[in-house]
């Protein structure tokens, strides 16, 4: 074999690289079995639909267990949105900054479960109902309280998760 | 039956939110989360219309559950709305974060009132 032959070099480096490769590179979508874009898209949609059903059932179940009187402060929807936002803060920090997860986890949990669990439209219609019932103070308080509590919840949950799960978060924040 | 209707609405609502968001986000290049804004406003319109319809005429319980807690509540999202606002604030677009919050609330309420009035006018 000629030493200048390119095959010689590639053979050596290929052999040297081979044992390390299968052990270290864990690809959740191995190229040999990689689904087509259409297949992957339908898997994402199925994950979102399944997650959406779980989230919607949790929300609907909560409204059955803790029903709200028509003119009362809608505590059930309020807590649904606040807890859903807190969970979103934890989830997004964990899956985008801490762990490398399966590509279907974010569609399933973030878009599906938490997106289906929390609701913007019900909160808006709750406000409308309070305004129509002659309780504008409660209606505006509810809209403002939901917004502020939801934003505070996601911010605090994300910050606490960074503190707990990312010890060097402040140094690495810029690169992520 | 009510549970089945909520599930059926959610099966459509959650993927519809994702597909609408993707379609809207692909058509502009601003940092403003118009995709989530669109689904939230659309869901407010649907729920407002249902509210108007329910007061103007008799809407079957099953249909109310399909459109209300099923489709519209799942189509809209508070968690993604607040996540995108937080991300805007963290990336330095504080003005956009505040604008997203206020515009969404005001537009959602306005849309709900318009849809309720429309349903009342059409069905009463």
Automatic annotation (TrEMBL), chain A:
Residues that hold Na(+) according to the record: 115, 118
Instruction: Return the protein name.
Output: Fluoride-specific ion channel FluC
Judging by the UniProt lineage, the source's domain of life is: Bacteria
**Molecular function per GO:** fluoride channel activity; metal ion binding
Q: What function does the entry list?
A: Fluoride-specific ion channel. Important for reducing fluoride concentration in the cell, thus reducing its toxicity.
A GO cellular component annotation here is: plasma membrane
- Reaction equations catalysed: fluoride(in) = fluoride(out)
Give the family this protein belongs to, as stated in its UniProt record.
Belongs to the fluoride channel Fluc/FEX (TC 1.A.43) family.
What topology in the membrane does the UniProt record assign?
Multi-pass membrane protein
Q: Which organism is it from?
A: Streptomyces cadmiisoli
Q: What is its main location?
A: membrane
Regulation acting on activity, per entry: Na(+) is not transported, but it plays an essential structural role and its presence is essential for fluoride channel function.
Gene from which the chain derives:
crcB
Write out the annotated subcellular location. Cell membrane
Automatic annotation (TrEMBL), chain B:
Subcellular location per the Swiss-Prot or TrEMBL entry: Cell membrane
For this protein's source organism, the top of the classification is:
Bacteria, Bacillati, Actinomycetota, Actinomycetes, Kitasatosporales
Provide the gene name from the record.
fluC
Q: Which domain of life is it from?
A: Bacteria
Keywords linked to the UniProt accession: Cell membrane, Ion channel, Ion transport, Membrane, Transmembrane, Transmembrane helix, Transport
Transmembrane is among the record's keywords: yes
Reaction(s) catalysed by this chain, per the record, are: fluoride(in) = fluoride(out)
A Pfam match is: CRCB
Q: What does this protein do?
A: Fluoride-specific ion channel. Important for reducing fluoride concentration in the cell, thus reducing its toxicity.
Q: Which GO terms describe its molecular function?
A: fluoride channel activity
Topological relation to the membrane, as annotated? Multi-pass membrane protein
Tell me its family.
Answer: Belongs to the fluoride channel Fluc/FEX (TC 1.A.43) family.
Listed under GO cellular component are: plasma membrane
**Protein's UniProt name:** Fluoride-specific ion channel FluC
GO terms of biological process kind = cellular detoxification of fluoride
Coiled-coil annotated spans: none
């Amino acid at each position: 074999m000629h030493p200048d032959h390119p095959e010689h070099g590639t053979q050596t480096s290929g052999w040297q690289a081979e044992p390390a490769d299968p052990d270290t590179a864990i690809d959740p979508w191995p190229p040999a079995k990689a689904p087509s874009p259409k297949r992957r898209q339908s898997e994402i949609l199925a994950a979102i639909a399944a997650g959406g059903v779980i989230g919607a059932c949790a929300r609907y179940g909560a409204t059955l267990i803790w029903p709200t009187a028509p003119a009362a402060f809608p505590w059930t929807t309020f807590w649904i949105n606040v807890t859903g936002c807190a969970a979103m803060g934890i989830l997004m920090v964990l899956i985008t900054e801490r762990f490398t997860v399966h590509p279907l986890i974010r569609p399933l949990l973030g878009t599906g479960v938490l997106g289906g669990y929390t609701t913007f439209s019900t909160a808006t219609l709750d406000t409308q109902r309070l305004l129509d019932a002659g309780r504008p103070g409660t209606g505006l308080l509810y809209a403002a309280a939901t917004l502020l509590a939801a934003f505070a919840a996601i911010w605090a949950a994300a910050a606490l998760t960074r503190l707990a799960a990312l010890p060097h978060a402040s140094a690495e924040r810029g690169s992520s | 039956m009510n549970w089945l209707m909520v599930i059926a609405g959610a099966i459509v609502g959650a993927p519809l939110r994702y597909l609408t968001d993707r379609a809207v986000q692909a058509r502009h290049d601003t940092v403003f989360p118009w995709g989530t804004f669109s689904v939230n406003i659309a869901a407010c319109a649907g729920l407002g219309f249902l509210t108007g319809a329910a007061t103007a005429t008799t809407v079957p319980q099953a249909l109310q559950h399909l459109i209300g807690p099923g489709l519209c509540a799942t189509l809209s999202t508070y968690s993604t709305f607040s996540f995108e606002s937080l991300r805007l604030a963290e990336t330095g677009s504080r003005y956009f974060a505040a604008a997203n919050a206020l515009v969404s609330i005001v537009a959602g309420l306005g849309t709900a009132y318009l849809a309720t009035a429309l349903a009342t006018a059409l069905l009463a």
